Every structure is written in structure tokens, then in C-alpha cells.
Model the fold of this input.
Amino acid sequence: MDGFPRKRLLIGAVENLKRPRFEPDAPAVSETQNLRMFVGTWNVGGKAPHGGLNLKDWLSTPTPADIYVLGFQEIVPLNAGNVLGAEDNGPAAKWLSLIRKALNSSSRRDLDFGQNYNRATTPPEEPNQKPRVSFSDLLSLEDEIEEEGLEFSEDFPSIADFFSSGLPRSGSTTRGSYCLAASKQMVGIFLCVWVRNDLNRHISNLKVSCVGRGIMGYLGNKGSISISMTLHQTTFCFVCTHLTSGEKEGDELRRNSDVMEILKKTRFLQSHRLSSPAFSPDSILEHDKIIWLGDLNYRLASGYGDTQELLQKNNWQALLDKDQLRIEQKAGRVFKGWEEGRIYFAPTYKYLENSDRYAMQTTKSRDKRRTPAWCDRILWRGEGMKQMWYTRGESRFSDHRPVHSLFTVHVDVASKSKVRRSGIPTTATNSSSCARVQAEERLLMFTRTESCLQPTSSRWF
Done:
């Protein structure tokens, strides 16, 4: 009888050795990562890009950015056929091809610095990381691009590559340093987000919302495209807009109304297929960091004579005192709580075709005379964002000059939690959480690809 309890004790001791006890996981600690984000907006005047258009001057930075947010207005002419008829996606595909070429060729040129910078901010790139599938349904447009004379370089993925990359494929590797995370078109408004390949796997909860504010108050010749995404643990919202035009008295109030309606009506619907433990914002203002870019169309509350005199003197400050956006913002009627950088550049609209002269400076032009104005703007809201510069480009491609800005942004990154096993401290991730996230990402890729390949009545995705 005395040996039986001793046997049970020995068995218990052996089991304790075989099954080490785990202490509760320490709470995950958030670390901050500093990234560079390039934001650009350009009203291209309804003109499709030609193959020789060089975007490097517009997109070049002293150091490569980690994220590129590029918004366009009037990528197609705003005529009745384009507003009421089938959407013309051809120009969007051309812009994507040119952007991909510019970003990846410049990244190769700055490869040495880029690799050092990447190592200082993020883990090394995975060799077989696949680009994320885009929202845009551009699969069928590659033949049309070739017919127009704009060829894809063999060094860059084609449109079809972007869609098929979400599906399992042996031997698939990422070419280039940047990939398209998301893109969306609504008539002439077009928004695309590009990220470094190694950041792409940390993006989740991609959603899009469009609000029409054009003809009859809801058609898409004016309005907004908003893209919501989560990078690591930080939520971003990019809002590309083309607001009501016109320089008559009271038109600024219509633009104010556009902004209010866009904030009110933009909603990012939650997926019923997937349940994510992470917070996913429903509206624009719920995001951690927000960028509002586009042709906001606010004009100068000034006559032709006064404006021309101040333009000749390059007296931007005196002109900005008459800027409708700043007047309305100071009065608290629009963009309350939003920030915009100091403007040290000339008005971006309206130029004569292929010229550095404003449309007000000649009476012989067929174009309507317009008072020059800073129509093209970039605003932001949220903590942990710092604007490095805010300037314009000098391309004569359209009657607007492109505007761009560079930000540094702080992104919250969850560090690996500390787990103690048998008294030995080790660093490990929660395996069940990782498996759930990976399964979610695969299903998201498949869902996006499936939605692109199957025709639907909605043009949102």
C-alpha cells in the first residue's frame, strides 16, 4: 500500500516534465514605426496619357517613399457619354502602367539606399511575396493598351499579373519594389495606392466607398472616392475628390456642401463573410490618419485686376488671404480641425494649353477666362503625421499643375509577446492568431480576384 502513493507521485512528476507549464502571455506591446508617404493630386483635363509621358519628375523624392497615394481628376472627358454611359477604364490602365514604370525604375536607381532604409524600418522582404490584388476591374484592358501603342515593359507586371498574383501559382515572384495595393475609378476621378512589396503583407481591411455629387446631386462627374485600409495596427483613409466648379459668388457654399455630404455618406461596409478581431472604421473621421486630396475647386475672392497685379509680384500671401478655402475654414464652415501646409507656390489653375500662361492673361484664347486659383489641394487630419514638403509640379500636360506632398507617418506595430516555457523566456507569436490572419488574407485575395473576374452590376470593386 505504501508503494502505490509513491508510484502516483512518480507518474505525476514524469507528466510534469513531459508537459511544461505555460505562464500567461505578457500583453503585446505596441512599437512605433516611421514611414514616408507621398501624396499627389492632378487634374489631367480629360486627356489620356501618352507613352512618352514621364512621371519621374512628379513622383521623384530625395529618398524613396514607402507609400504612394495618387489621385486624379478628369482622367476622361466629363461629357454626357462618360457620365451617363459605360465607364471608360482605358485611361486608368494607362496611368497605372506609367506609374508602375516610374516607381519601379526609380526604386532600382535608388536600390542601395532603399535597401538600407528598408532594413532600418521593416523586416527583410520575403522573396516570394505576392502583390495584393487591386480593386480595379482592368483585366480585359491589356489588349486595348497595346492597340493604343502603349506597351508594358517586360520588367514590370502586366494588369493580368496583378489580378492573378492573388491565386496560388508555382514559381511566382514579385518584380519591382512597389505594388498596387488598391485602385478605384468613378467616371473621371481615379485613386490608387501603391506600397513597398514588403509592406503589402501588413495591409488589411481594404474597403472603398464612392459618393457622387455631380449632375442631379448624385452622378459621378463630381464627388469622391475613399479608400480605407489598415497598415499594421493603424487605420488610414484616403479621400480623393472633385468638388463643384465655378467662381460665381456663392459657389464656395456648394463646395462646402459637397464636403459635408461626402463626410456624411461615405461608409465602409463591414464584411459578413469574414470576422476580424481588429477595429475597422465605418466612416472617414473614425480613422487614425486621413488624407483629403483633389481638385477642391475653391477660388479666389478677388477681381481680375487685383489678381493679375499680385501674380506679377509673386505675392502669394496677399493672394492666399483671398483664398476661399482658407476663408471658409477659418470661419468654421468647412474642414474644421483639418490641417494644410504652408503654400509657397503659384496658383495651379487655369493655364492655357501647353503653356505657362494663365487663361486670364489673354483675350484671344478660345478658353474661358478664369481667375487663377489654388484649386488643387492636400489636407490631412490625425496625430503622428508631419508634412515634409508641399509643392507643385510644372508639367504642361493639362490646364492644372500637379500638386504633391511628402509626409512622415507614425504607424503602430504590435511587438511579439513574451512567453515563458518551463521557466525559459522565449519570444513567440500567438500561433492561432497568425493562422487566423493568414487564412483571412488568403480569403480576401481570392474574394477580390473572384470579384474582378466575374461581371457584376456594381462598379465599386
User: Anything to note?
Assistant: DSSP finds 13 helices and 13 strands in the chain.
